[in-house]
Specification:
267 residues; alpha/beta; 7-stranded parallel sheet; two-stranded antiparallel sheet
């Protein structure tokens, strides 16, 4: 039995992770602000603290130690800093706000100097290896810069022995309890009786997505096999990238509606 803390717990993956850990016999605690209470399969300790700020997390973990912490909510850099010395294995859930992964639209953008489009290619060897040197991630936007800085900080902490670190990078997560219904832009159009939906480039652009249950399974795999997951960075997604066109078609079939897909150039 492990003592495990989940930072978050109220989103699309939280209840799935907590309930699975309870079923496996672990002692589970959840840390969040308490604004979105959730009922789990069994009682768990609820630690009320705002993971978006350093001091509340530091105060909340004083005198505590956890075998594993899954940080899926709040500002991960602060959570990791506050938990240093209080956890053996930290699993940080972050995102992919940088070009060159799966989503083609993110791989071409204007440069700040000339405004000329630059092709970013398809390589993301950010961690480096014995045969390939490390290439710094090039984030998209200021928020992306913060994500990459946090990603780097967690890897640094692992390398310097602060804790065993695992980084899980998510694309867009969909499914029950998602904070913003990603299907709603299509559903609303169909409910309004729209018979045409405009898509970029025929709707054939691929996007990486991750169903909530699949995301939870990835987290649980990292918890169960620390030897395999420790010190690793995982780019996570469903096995099959999906096109905008297929995404729309799946929704129209489910709603028993029909709509013509109209192509427009991406610009």
């Amino acid at each position: 039995m492990k003592r495990i803390l989940l930072v978050g717990g109220g989103g699309p993956t939280g209840p799935l992770i907590v309930n699975a850990l309870i079923a496996e016999g672990h002692e589970v605690a959840v840390m969040n602000t308490g604004r979105h209470p959730v009922e789990y399969d069994a009682p768990v300790e609820v630690i009320l603290a705002d993971p978006n700020f350093l001091e509340p997390v530091q105060d909340a973990v004083k005198g505590r130690f956890f075998d594993t912490v899954v940080a899926s909510y709040g500002r991960l850099r602060y959570v990791a800093q506050a938990l240093t010395g209080h956890v053996e294995h930290l699993i940080g859930v972050t995102s992919t706000f940088y070009p060159n992964w799966i989503d083609p639209p993110a791989t071409v953008r204007p440069t700040s100097e000339s405004g000329v489009e630059r092709d970013w290619g398809v390589t993301y060897l950010d961690e480096g290896s014995a045969v390939s040197p490390a290439v710094p991630l090039d984030p998209v936007g200021k928020f992306g810069q913060r994500v990459v800085e946090t990603d780097t900080a967690l890897q640094w902490a692992h390398q310097h022995g602060d804790f065993i670190g695992t980084v899980l990078r998510y694309p867009r997560v969909y499914g029950p309890r998602q904070p913003g219904a990603t299907e709603w832009s299509i559903i609303r159009r169909l409910l309004d009786g729209r018979q045409r939906i405009i898509v970029p480039e025929g709707g054939f652009l691929l996007q990486s997505i991750l169903y909530a249950e699949n995301a939870a399974r990835i987290v649980l795999a990292a918890v169960r096999d620390r030897e395999a997951s420790g010190g690793q960075v995982f780019n996570c997604a469903d096995a099959e990238p999906i096109t905008h066109r297929k995404w729309i078609r799946l929704i129209t079939v489910t709603m028993v509606k029909d709509a013509e897909i109209v192509s427009a150039p991406a610009p």
